[in-house]
Amino acid sequence: MGTRGVRTFLLATAGVVAMLFAGYGTGTGDIAYAVVYLALCGLAWWAALRLARPADRRPWLLIALAQTLWFLGDTIEILYTYLVGEVPSVGLADVCWLGGYPLMALALLQMAVRRAPGRLRGAVLDAGTLTVAAALLGWEFLISPFLGQGYSVIETVVPALYPVADVVLLAGVLVVALSPGTRGTPTRLLFAATALYLGNDLAINILPLLTDQGLLPKWIGYDAAARLGTLVMFGNALISAALLHPGRAELTRAGHQVPKLHPARVLFLGLALMTTPTLTLAHAGFNARTLVALGAAALCTMFVLTRFTTAVREQDRTQARLTYQAQHDPLTGLSNRAVLGERLAHLRPSTDVPVAVLYLDLDGFKEVNDRYGHEAGDSVLVAVAQRLSAVVRAGDLVARLGGDEFVLLCPGVGEADAVWLAERILADVALPVEFRGHHLTVGASIGIAATAGGPDGDRGGTVLRSADAAMYQAKQLGRGRWVLAGTEAGPIVPASVPA
């Protein structure tokens, strides 16, 4: 399904969910709710079995199973309502609902492992920090108030498991969110679905409490909270849309994109670190002494996080500098042999799109070095690099292999355009280079290879070897000319820029 189809699917599902929200509690509405929910579960199973790659299928199967358990829990509740007339406070439906959370969290963790194999340590530590803070808040506001209220053990334990299940799900999504990997539309859909699940559970727990305290009218605290369950269905649709999206592979395939240390990440880590001292001092009662202690803790946390952020950004800058140095020639700033090899290795063996390689060796460069010194030779190399960069397109690659050898890799360029480019380069390189009052001149011999690849599919290696051989042929034929691989030499081009 294309992007437009996914968008249409989500819009249609949103409309259906809105109607189910309005019709909640009626016989027709409940039947429609069960039918639509069952259809979405079927879609999740079909997509997991038919669209996901076999190696990446397990997380999607776990998600489909979690959604099915939630559907069974809702169905059991509906059956109790119409067959028995009363839904038990704790029952089989809770087993199904609670069983879906660890499955969903496990699916998210498996996605994170696939997206960033061996690179999850930082994400796990940050996610652990935030999760512990969330667990503490859940205990303080959603579990602890109901202990010792005269409920049975089951009636006390089972409701308390829902905040625990939410914390488990939160841990899973945080590991994915904080780990390296591509963050396209499928990933954002997955995050939106999980946020909807967690927000729905939080609202269902909080709204009745606010109503009991007289802060909300009853129709919001109880009626609206009961209807919020329909939003889980839309969360399921968001996950199905992520699997239907053409870019779904990003969720289970290793990516190289590393998330930057966003200020929001540091802010939330700081708030998490302040959770424990804030709640501890709140229990002790806020007074001058506790407020001073809390302020000191906040300042220490801010200083530590600022130092941490500074260190991470310095490390990022150092890493970026080292990466640049590893990929570029220090004299000319052009890409080096490693980058050229990587680009050649990624050329597809398909014959649909031509590719041209121009292998260039300077003529007379040794004489310039011997007569004027290496500093003059460096000036010539820099000038040649600038002239080569000026004549290529944005998507072409100019690389220096070392010494006085350069290579131009031009995807989408055929033989005729490659020959025109070679003649332009011969003319530009032949222009004099000013150096301390001297006019330094060099020429070039260029080998051209424009090919669709060899029979072994090694398109990049084939075209580079052909261009190299053609360049040596040009040298042997008198220099200052180009040779197209497999043909005779081109003419010597005078030092003028072609029109």
From TrEMBL:
Membrane-crossing segments per the record: 7-25, 31-48, 60-83, 89-111, 123-148, 160-178, 190-210, 225-245, 266-286, 292-312
Organism field: Actinoplanes regularis
UniProt cross-references to InterPro entries, sorted A to Z: DGC-Regulatory_Protein, GGDEF_dom, Nucleotide_cyclase, Rev_trsase/Diguanyl_cyclase
Describe the location of the GGDEF domain by residue ranges: 353-487
Q: State what protein this is by name.
A: Diguanylate cyclase (GGDEF) domain-containing protein
Alphabetized PANTHER family for the sequence: DIGUANYLATE CYCLASE DGCT-RELATED (PTHR46663), GGDEF DOMAIN-CONTAINING PROTEIN (PTHR46663:SF2)
Family matches, as Gene3D superfamilies: 3.30.70.270
Its lineage reads: Bacteria, Bacillati, Actinomycetota, Actinomycetes, Micromonosporales
Key words, A-Z = Membrane, Transmembrane, Transmembrane helix
